[in-house]
Specification:
Layout: E1 9-17, H1 29-32, E2 37-43, E3 46-54, E4 58-59, H2 63-70, E5 77-78, E6 81-89, E7 92-98, H3 114-122, E8 130-135, E9 138-146, E10 163-171, H4 181-186, E11 195-198, E12 202-207, H5 210-226, E13 239-241, H6 249-261, E14 268-272, E15 286-291, E16 294-298, H7 303-307, H8 316-322, E17 324-328, E18 338-339, E19 344-349, E20 354-358, E21 361-365, H9 367-382, H10 405-415, E22 420-421, E23 426-427, E24 436-437, E25 441-442, E26 448-454, H11 461-477, H12 480-493, H13 495-498, E27 508-514, H14 526-542, E28 546-550
Parallel strand pairs: 26-27, 27-28
Antiparallel strand pairs: 1-7, 1-12, 2-3, 3-6, 4-5, 6-7, 8-9, 8-10, 10-11, 11-12, 13-21, 14-19, 15-16, 15-17, 17-18, 19-20, 20-21, 22-25, 23-24, 25-26
Length: about 550
């Protein structure tokens, strides 16, 4: 008979760790050398290691405010008691952490796929309550959304192919059967739902008796190895970030450095890619900074600009990491200095894997991701508008003999009254205090047209920025107040046109001219594809049609 004590549980955070010959190998090296107590123990029949300690006394945070207000120094201090229990269960290593015990774990030993492995098999996609995600091309943007009532995973606008989910929290799907101690204890209660918080570790109620804990950990192993993945959550596994100290990072860094020195190699591709902070806001008109000892001051950043300051072949990426480049808009406002490495994008293609370096981090792309991107990109190019734009070279040239984007947009509007030029007309909102471009041209049927000229020399950055800007514009204009401001902007130029706008964007068109070769899915830069697919998926969620127009 199962006693009440056997069913006792406590909500704890559990980590799955990479296997090691000795449990001590899973402990952070600085902890092994520090002032902590390490005991070899057993949890029921399983070998385990208990690491515990108390931090040095530190002044409480609010004592300084009391002293400033009253002149009285209370002298209060506080300490933190922490512990981590490392346990080997049938060849799988787990760690339970208490207090700040997570600091006792060796960082490289943490299996960071554990939380996602559980989430995609157990959580109900319609009742996700919290999600934390990193955009694939946006290290600087981390979105943390909380919906207490649960509105479903896709209510967060998740772009499942291009965003790395770091945390998911919500109730377990009703069809999932997990033989856990807490479920056995509470499962008969009315409206009981087991909830999980899945990140690098998982917060979950686990048994606090030796036998029940081992049973629970074995069940977690079973779920992650035998449980079926929910079809709507599977895309979350298509892109995986390689964490700090990953065994492949050094090799990938070396390959990227070789690509930077010799971009003609067939092992991959190198190019320029906008850092995340520059995806939102006015277009960058000038780049300033330095790479190594070489100063950068140009209106068109290229790979050659990055390569010019890399004299030491053994420290190419290290030099980029410590160098800085900032982007300035037309009025000279800076988006802030960013490590030069974050302006570089690289793709490394191996027989069985594909990796990309974006915003300083490496990601592994699964086969499903690659196939998905190719399909969406092909569909976008096949969905052409029923109108055409004039050849780029027909527009007036500047003093240097070049056709620039601003002149082309004005030319199109002058030649065809179905187009209204709104280039550089910024909409300023609370979310975008510096303003954003709704479009370059308001086209036939009131679609938003975003125009860009590209070439092999500009690499992916220009198109990635174009696709991201178009998406920012469309998403922003789904807000009623922002849309009303847009209508007023159009009314200032064409009141009759403004009266036909409706209540939201009618569609979005990316109009692109490639100078050096024909533009089609096969010649679209690798790093621009993710931005295009991200836009396509999000716009589909909003019900806004997306089309590609190739400018001859």
């Amino acid at each position: 008979m199962i006693s009440e004590s056997d069913l006792a549980t406590r909500r704890m955070r559990v980590y799955r760790l990479h296997q090691a010959p000795d449990l001590r190998d899973l402990v952070a090296p600085k902890i092994l050398d520090g002032d902590v107590l390490i005991r070899e123990v057993h949890v029921d029949t399983a070998p385990a290691l208990l690491v515990s300690g108390i931090s040095e006394p530190t002044p409480v945070d609010w004592a300084g405010a009391v002293r400033s207000l009253t002149g009285v120094d209370l002298g209060f201090t506080t300490t933190t008691a922490s512990a981590a229990l490392f346990v080997d269960v049938d060849g799988t290593s787990y760690a339970l952490t208490f207090g700040h015990g997570w600091r006792y774990l060796r960082d490289s030993a943490i299996d960071r796929e554990f939380g996602l492995d559980l989430a995609v098999r157990m959580l109900d996609p319609d009742e996700i309550r919290r999600i934390t995600r990193w955009a694939l091309s946006a290290k600087a943007r981390v979105d943390h959304n909380l919906v207490p009532g649960g509105q479903g995973l896709w209510a967060f606008g998740l772009r499942e192919h291009a965003e790395l989910v770091r945390n998911l929290a919500g109730p377990v799907h009703r069809d999932v059967r997990a033989e856990l101690t807490h479920v056995r204890r509470r499962g008969a209660y009315r409206n009981f739902r087991l909830s999980l918080d899945c990140g690098d570790g998982v917060q979950i109620p686990l048994g606090i008796e030796g036998g029940s804990l081992l049973s629970d950990l074995r069940e977690l192993t079973r779920v992650t190895t035998e449980g079926s993945i929910h079809a709507r959550l599977e895309p979350l596994r298509w892109v995986r970030r390689l964490g700090p100290g990953h065994e492949l990072t050094e090799q990938l860094d070396a390959t990227a450095a070789d690509l930077l020195a010799d971009p003609g190699t067939e092992t991959g591709e190198i190019g320029i890619s906008y850092p995340a902070r520059y995806y939102d806001g006015p277009t960058v008109q000038r780049y300033r900074g330095s790479v190594g000892d070489t100063q950068i001051d140009t209106d068109e950043l290229t790979v050659e600009d990055l390569r010019s300051g890399l004299a030491d072949s053994d420290r190419r990426l290290a030099t980029l990491r410590t160098s800085s480049i900032e982007g300035l808009d037309e009025e000279g406002h800076s988006g802030g200095g960013v490590s030069a490495l974050h302006w570089l994008a690289a793709e490394v293609v191996e027989p069985d894997s594909r990796f990309v370096l974006i915003d300083g981090d490496w990601y592994q792309l699964g086969e499903r991701y690659v196939a998905h991107v190719e399909r969406v990109v092909s569909d976008a190019f096949a969905n052409r508008p029923d109108w055409t734009l004039p050849p780029w070279e027909d527009a007036p040239r500047n003093e240097q003999g070049r056709v620039v984007e601003a002149a082309y947009n004005v030319y199109v509007a002058e030649q065809d009254d179905r187009f209204l030029c709104l280039d550089r007309s910024l909409l300023k909102t609370r979310v975008h205090p510096r303003g954003f471009e709704a479009c370059d041209l308001l086209g036939p049927d009131n679609v938003l047209v975003h125009v860009k000229k590209v070439s092999g020399g500009t690499g992916s950055s220009v198109l990635s920025h174009l696709f991201a800007q178009g998406l920012v514009s469309a998403e922003s204009l789904t807000d009623r107040e922002t849309w009303d401001r847009f209508v007023r902007l159009v009314a200032e130029r064409d009141p009759a046109r403004a009266a036909t706008l409706g209540h939201r964007p009618a569609g979005l068109v990316y109009a692109i001219h490639r100078m050096d070769k024909a533009l089609h899915p096969g010649t679209l830069f690798t790093f621009a594809r993710s931005a295009l697919v991200s836009a396509a998926v999000a716009l589909n969620t909003y019900g806004i049609p997306l089309r590609i127009a190739v400018i001859p």
